[in-house]
Amino acid sequence: MTDETPAPRNIPALLSALHTEKRSCTVLVSGTPGGAIHVRDGLVVGVETPGAPGVEVLLLKSHRVTEEDWAAVRAAGTDPARLARELVAQGLLGAAELEIIGQAALFDAAFALALTSPDGWEATAARPLLETGAAVPPARLVTENTRRVRLLANERGATARFARDRLAPAPAARDPRQTARLSPRHRTVLTAADGRRTPRDIAFTLGRGLFAVMLDLRDLLAQGLLQPPSATATARPSTALRTPPHPSTTPSQPSATPLPRRKR
Hints:
The chain is an alpha+beta fold.
C-alpha cells in the first residue's frame, strides 16, 4: 500500500486491501476489547483479543493438552511461530486437529472484535503467532460475522449488549424437572451463569468459544432457565479465571513499503 493510497475507512476495508496486495503484517486494533489481526500473504491467519479465548485457553481448558505438557513445550524454548509444530511433533495434537481449533479460535476472536467499534488501528510489521495452519480470506470473516450476529439478535448493537450481560439463574433453574432434559453442555453453561459472569467470562472459564457460549445462553433464556440482569442492578466485577497471553518475541523487521496507520 503506497503513500498515495487513501486510508481505509474501516478494518474490513484495510484487510481487503491487504488481501489484494498479498501483504503480510499484524493489524493492532485499539479499544475495548482490542486485539491483533495477523495477516500473511493477504490471508488472515490468526486473531488475538481479550474478548474471546485463544488457542492456548481452548487447548488447556478442554484438557486436550495438559498443563504439564504445555509447560514442557514452552520450556523447550520454542517461539510462538514454531510452537504449533512442536505440539504436533511431540504427538500432543494432530496437525488437522490443531488447524480446526486454530480456525475456530480465529473466527471467534474476529466475532468478538466485530461487536464493538474500534478506537483506531495500525498495520505494523508481522509479529510472531502460534501458527495453526488456519488461513481465511478477509471477505469470509465479514460474511461469518454477519451470520453470527443475525443468529443471535439480528442486530450488532443488540448482540454486543448480550455479550456484556451478566445472566443469572431463573427460579425455574432450581426445579430438577426443568433441568433434567438439558444436555450436559447446557447444564454446564447454566451452572457457570451465576449472575456475575458475562458470556465472555463463561467462555474463558469453560474454555469454549464466545459465540458457542452465547448460543447456549440464548437457548437457556428461551427456556426460562436464565433471566437477564435487572435494569436497576448494580454491576459487579467479573470473576472469571483467565489465562494471560505469553509475551511475544521480538517482531520481525518491517517491510520497505510503509503500512497504513490510523488513529482516531
